[in-house]
Amino acid sequence: KQWYQRRVSITAGLEDTLTQLKTAHSCILNEIDDWKEEQRKFMISGKRQLALDFIERDACMLADALTSCAGYYARLRNHLDEMVENRAHVLEFHTEVINIIRALMLKCFIIEKQPPQVMKRDTRFSASVRIIAGERWGFAIKQPVIKVCLVNAEQAQSLLRVLN
Fold first, then answer.
1. Contact at 8 Å (CB) between 69 and 24?
2. Closest CA to 86 of 5, 6, 2, 11
3. Which pTM was predicted?
4. Which helix (H) or strand (E) holds 109?
5. Distance, CA of 66 to CA of 77 (rounded, Å)
6. How far apart are the C-alpha atoms of 122 and 17, rounded to whole Å?
7. How many percent of the chain have pLDDT more than 90?
């Protein structure tokens, strides 16, 4: 009976943890979206760029928590055969954690500095990208290689139609 209560407690703990992870994930994604919108406005107005440090700090903390949860699943996996009634909950927890990791990784690739949207001939520009919490995922790339293509307005509209 004590073992059964412990299993129920583990399942409840996983559900609570997952809820907290989803909440933190949602907040960080909103922070990144807000940063991108403000960055777009600043790019148009020519004002200085916003710092990403506070978002990176939060993303790193979430990345650490997600990595820890994935490790917790690895330890639980060895006992799944003994936990038949909780197996589905544990597997669902792991799937959700992996999905949050994927979504966070995709959102953490940020174009930190973009070239102007409209350029005259012979305009020089620079761009930079940043992978927030990249070292947490093993992406400590100092000089990522990014391919850039300049397109005219007609080509841009065509690309937008294809993407949508």
1. no
2. 11
3. 0.71
4. strand 109-113
5. 16
6. 54
7. 7
